[in-house]
Amino acid sequence: MLIKVATYNIHKAVGTDGLYAPDRILATLEEIGADVVVLQEADRRFGTRETVLPLARIVERTPYRPVVFGHNSASLGWHGNAALVSERLTVTASATLDLPTLEPRGAILIETLTDGHPMRIGGMHLDLTGLRRRQQARSVQAQVLARSTTMPTLLMGDLNEWRAARGCLIDFAENYHIAPTGPSFPARLPFGRLDRIMVGRGIEIVDCGTHRSSLSRVASDHLPVWATLRLSPNQSAVSLLCS
To answer: How many domains would you assign to the chain?
Structure first.
């Protein structure tokens, strides 16, 4: 069974031209055509933390429905992390994770069924400082392991890790294979691999990449990254060369 996933830091729907334009984000998501997307910076940071993507527009413009986490009816997610799923996925559970930090940070988890196959999906936006990122990486993995049910697990998000195979990537690599999706930041001339997709046992990476289009280069300061996955419950995570 194949499934396409993506992660996208939408920069509160403010593009590289400085304009707030949520419809450009939604149009970019349509271009990607993923079955599930995790977003970062999907809510405003202060005040009521309201969503920057109007719910009615998500329903009108995309095949997605937002996952409800229940902390704030004005927000799309939790600390800016949100998940959008297509009709292929049935969400069986959702949770929010608190992370060790000096500033507001969090992560989300959803448990899903796709064509009868279970999969756990995590979304996160980690700290700007290296020490906190490593603490947060360990915290996310510990909270995943503490879940009552074992299932193939996928983690995605903006890790804010500039270094190759260093920092929090070392911590994640102990249990996850990191897809070589390519640079995603800054959107107009990307060289930083800040946005990552990481798969655990039972998930095979068939293809992956960074979504580059005339629209994605202006819609946010990050480019989306994506991966096509095969659920292989009896196999270890493996990968092909991705671009």
So the answer is: 1
115-151: per-residue pLDDT in tens?
899 999 999 999 998 889 999 999 999 999 999 899 9
**What mean pLDDT value characterizes the chain?**
93
Q: What is the pLDDT of residue 239?
A: 46
Preceding amide of 186 cis, omega within 30: yes
- pTM, two decimals, is 0.94
CATH number of the domain enclosing 178: 3.60.10.10
Contact 81, 39 (CB under 8 A): yes
- Is 236 part of any domain? no
In a domain, 180, yes or no: yes
